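Ticket #4471: structure export looks truncated?
Reporter: QA, pipeline team
Priority: medium

Steps to reproduce: submit the single chain below to the structure queue and open the exported record.
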Amino acid sequence: MYDLTERRRALALVSQGHSLNAVSRMTGVSRSALREWRVRVEPKRSVPDCPGRASGPAYAYLLGLYLGDGCISPQPRGGHTLRIACSDAWPGLIDACEEAVRAVCPGNSVCRVHAQGCTMVTSYGRHWPCLFPQHGPGRKHERPIALEPWQQAVVDEHPWDFVRGLIHSDGSRVVNRTTRLVGGEPRRYEYPRYFFTNKSVDIRRLYTDTLDTLGVAWRQANACNVSVARKASVALMDRFVGPKY
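Actual output as written to the record:
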C-alpha cells in the first residue's frame, strides 16, 4: 500500500509530462495504479467489517453486469445503493441479475424498480464500493477502469461468467443474412455473430483480453464495437454464453 505522499510524488511526475510507462519504471508503481490515482489519489478505506473482496462465478457475472450497466450511489444516511439496469425485453436476464446480487451479498435486501423499458435491480448495503472499487465520479468511459488484483483472479478463475455478464449488459447475439450469387443463382446465407458495444476503451480491453485467454477470435468492428463472427468462436460463445432470454 502506497501512502499519500508517494502517490502524489508519482502523479507529479505524470503531470510533468512523463508517460505512464516512464513513471512506472522510475517508481515501481504499476500503470493501472497510476491510472486509478489520476481519478482518486486518496487510498480507499474499507467499511468496518467489510469483506473487501468477493469470489465465485456469481461475482464474476455481476462484475460484467456492473461494468456495463451498473452504478453505485451514496445514500444520505450512509451506505450505498447498487443499481443494475436490465432491459424488460429479457426477463431471464433480470432474474439472473437478481440471483447474482443475492449470492454476492446474501445479507442485503434486493428489489426491482421499474422504469421506462427497463428494470433496475437494486440493493442497498455498506460494502458495494469495496466490492466494486471501479466506482467513482463521472461516467465509466470518461475515466480509467482497471481491475484490482483480486478481481482479476476471480475473472481468471471464472472467465466465461465474466464474459456472459458483459454480453448480458452491453452485448448481443444476432443473425446476419446475406445473398450471394452461386452459379448465377442468388442464394441466401445466414450466420450468427456476437457484438459487444461499450464506449470505454478499458472495458472493451477487459472483454477482449478475456476472450484471448479463452481462445475466442474477435475483431474491432468499429470504434466502440467488438465482433465475434468466426464459426468456431461463435460455437464457443453459444456453449458458454448464449443469447439473452
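Status: closed, not a bug. The export was complete when the record was re-opened. Leaving a note from the reviewer for reference: The first strand starts at residue 70 and ends at 74.
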